[in-house]
Amino acid sequence: MFRLRCFRTFLRNSEGMFEKVPDTLSFEGAASIAFVYSTVHYSLFHEARLERDETILIHAASGGPGQAAIILSQQISAEIFVTMSLETKKQFLIDTHGILPDHIFNSREHSFAAGIKRMTNQKGGDVALNSLAGEVLRQTWLCVAPSGRFIELSKKDIVGNTNMDMSKFMDNIAFIGVNMLSIKVAFCIMQSGKRIGKMVLSTGPEDLVPKSKPYPFSQDAIYMILGGLSGLGRSIAARTVDQAARHVVFTSRPGATTPHACKLVDELTKKGAKILAFACDISNFSEFKDVLKTVKDNNFPLIKGAINCAMQLQDVLLKNMTLEDYNAAIRPKIYTTKNLHNLLPRDVDFFICLSSTSGIVGSRGRGNYNAGLPATSMNLGIGVGITAERGEILSYLKTGAMIGLHEQEVLAVVQAVMSGKMPIQAVVGLATGGHHLEKNGHEGDSGDSGADLQAVLRAASTLAEAADAVCVALVRKLAKAMMVEIEELDPTRPANSYGVDSLVAVEVRAWVFKEVKSDVSAFDILSNMPLQPLATKIAAKSSLLPPTISDTEDDA
To answer: DSSP characters for 8-60?
Structure first.
């Protein structure tokens, strides 16, 4: 297949973008075809518009693009002139592609331009496919026929802003640069000009993946990990010390009192790090200021980096949320970040705030979770941190567009953020657009998409028919929300018998309003009404029903 960013160990894409490799073709050969042929095909037929019986000059004809250009040009019976750099390549072009000897020129002898003119009765070539630079490019430009097309595949002269004879534009010649993106790899062997064909970058079992450089932590600096004695903070702290940090300060509300926290402090101390752990609410300005004073009194060096891992979840529907509920979630984020901003030195190397994808895409019950100095907010998906430690949160988030993250993946992102090469807000663990479309496509295939349901309701001849359609879609919606199989839900039982809570009821009510164009209360969904009668009530209130059904229902 051919697309951007293909050079990776694992690749996911639509099945329509893949083609089975024939048994007669190696994987390396298959990998070289797509890029080379797509580049040449685009150049010759979309840009140059090469036609039958026209003449074309192909430079570096024994290379991958050159041979592809020969094959494609021969398919439309164009007259082909080629250049090569070695005599051994000349025989290859004659034997393999049937190029006439008098149509082959040496690109290292600039007389090829005069030869092309001679062979075309001083007209020149209709199309020139150039991949060479310097004087060869200038000579090629001079031997293009009036109304001809010059296709430039090499970027060297474009980037170098090489001078050209502008008078040739009087002959209505088009100069077209084709820049097909690829992996930027310097192939010294290709630069030598001694290779025939294409070069494919491949990996084998014995190849080693280059080890990424660790972040250059200073041994004469403090690194603060706030809320770092639990969850993901412990992993970040261990990585920090493993990469040579020798002064680490922790803060958390309970302090180093839990077995996990005590074990972490002990392990880091044995590795040679000096650890200070404070029981402190860093959202409280005075408490945090006292912590910094204590650090200074202990003769610790200057603070050069800070990572805020602190968080507190207080999930509740917005209409029931108290001020204390609201503040409980924002204190560790907003107040703490503000205190860090005001109290930490201005020249820290990094200032990272861990957050959640809930702040990006929203989440039921989390309405409370939503100066320009260098800082980065990392919005983490499920799989690490508090979601990995609390199963009920993990199960709920998996129903949405969340993707699990491995601990090592998060640590790699943290290290990249420290280097300053990441954007101010780094979102990871959130489903991509392709994942979302794929999920919606599967729903559509199963027949419960909003468009299908609305079409059925508009065409319904009786209320019972509409209610049956709504019941099927309602069961599917509940099954997805509860993460159970559709077969496990019985339409003769109420939703509350399956553990549907107020948060799920709010989601289902929003779905009913959007897809069925009906309005029922969350209390109806949570009542003892079985799913089938509930579906009938929803259908009866739908504005999508034909007027005849609505009138009949009103008369009843």
So the answer is: SS-----GGG--PPPTTS-HHHHHHHHHHHHHHHIIIIIIS---TT-EEEESS
Establish whether domains 32-185 and 222-427 are of one fold. Answer: yes
Q: Find, among 299, 387, 296, 378, the residue nearest to 337 by Cα.
A: 378
Question: What's the CA gap between 297 and 291, in Å, rounded?
Answer: 10
| Residue 225 to residue 79: CA distance in whole angstroms | 70
Q: CA-CA distance, 353 to 368, in Å (whole number)?
A: 17
Q: Where in the chain are the domains? A: 32-185, 222-427, 450-541
Burial-class residue 377 by CB neighbours within 10 Å (0-12, 13-18, 19+): buried
Query: Are 429 and 405 within 8 A, CB to CB?
Result: yes
CATH 1.10.1200.10 fits 450-541, yes or no: yes
- Residues 146-173 have pLDDT tens digits of 999 999 987 777 767 777 888 889 999 9
Q: Is-above-0.70 flag for pTM?
A: no
Closest CA to 346 of 322, 325, 371: 371
Does CATH number 3.40.1000.10 belong to domain 222-427?
no
Beta-carbon count within 10 A of 189 CB? 9
- How far is it, in rounded angstroms, from Cα 451 to Cα 458? 11
